[in-house]
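re: ur msg from earlier - yeah i can do the heme C complex, just paste it... oh wait u already did. ok heres what im feeding in:
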Amino acid sequence: MATSGHQLSYHINVDTSDVESLQRGSRIFVNYCMGCHSASYMRYNRLGQDLGISEETLKANFMFGTDKPGNTMEIAMKSADALKFFGVAPPDLSVVARSRGADWLYTYFMTFYRDPSRPFGVNNLQFKDVAMPHVLWELQGFQKLVYKTVTHEDGTEMEVIESLEQESEGKMSPDEYKNTVYDLVNFLVYLAEPAKFKRQKIGIWVIVYLLSLLVLAYMLKQEYWKDVR
Ligand code: HEC
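and the outut:
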């Protein structure tokens, strides 16, 4: 019997102005991703500034011992070692949200499932035969694929993927896990364009500034032309 692809994809609305969500996402990123992935476009002190994380907290929880606040978010693993471990080097994640998009990333983290034929015992619906382990399994637990059989008009039967079912429990409930993945993706979106975060905040002040300039310019004009008339 043949099997066919899946239709399990998710849509989320990210909100990079939600600083608390970004803070939670950054913690997940540092604890669960930076073992393998870098984010070399981002500096720790910028992260601290944008997300309101103090330098002490950055040092204690975010940075490796030898890092300085001005350093970028590099990792200790050498790409040669990574190649040996995974067959492919874990890519830098600075701009992954731009290349993949938020929905893709969210779906990726929601659709890891048990697959004993794979080196790490898991596969992924969004990224078939991915070389990355399910690093959040501790939080989510493991899921398994559920198939259903579809009979075509000509009588041939086909197995299609119907859903993913919780096989073993993680530390988090399914809802908590969803929220965590949301925070993580939100953070990855911020990471891909931190300037946008600043722009949003600065934008309003730029407008206030321009408006007050307009008023001043107008008053000045009135003043200058008063005597000419
Ligand atoms: C144990 C090492 C390891 C850890 C930890 C890890 N990854 Fe990965 N990741 C990989 C490898 C290896 C690949 C390349 C997979 C491939 O190409 O098959 C990858 C690929 C990815 C991709 C796909 C990139 C692309 O566009 O092709 C994303 C997104 C990703 N990882 C995000 C994360 C996030 C977010 C975390 C933390 C929650 C994380 N990874 C933790 C090893 C890791």
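cool cool. The mean pLDDT is 90. ping me if u need the other ligands too
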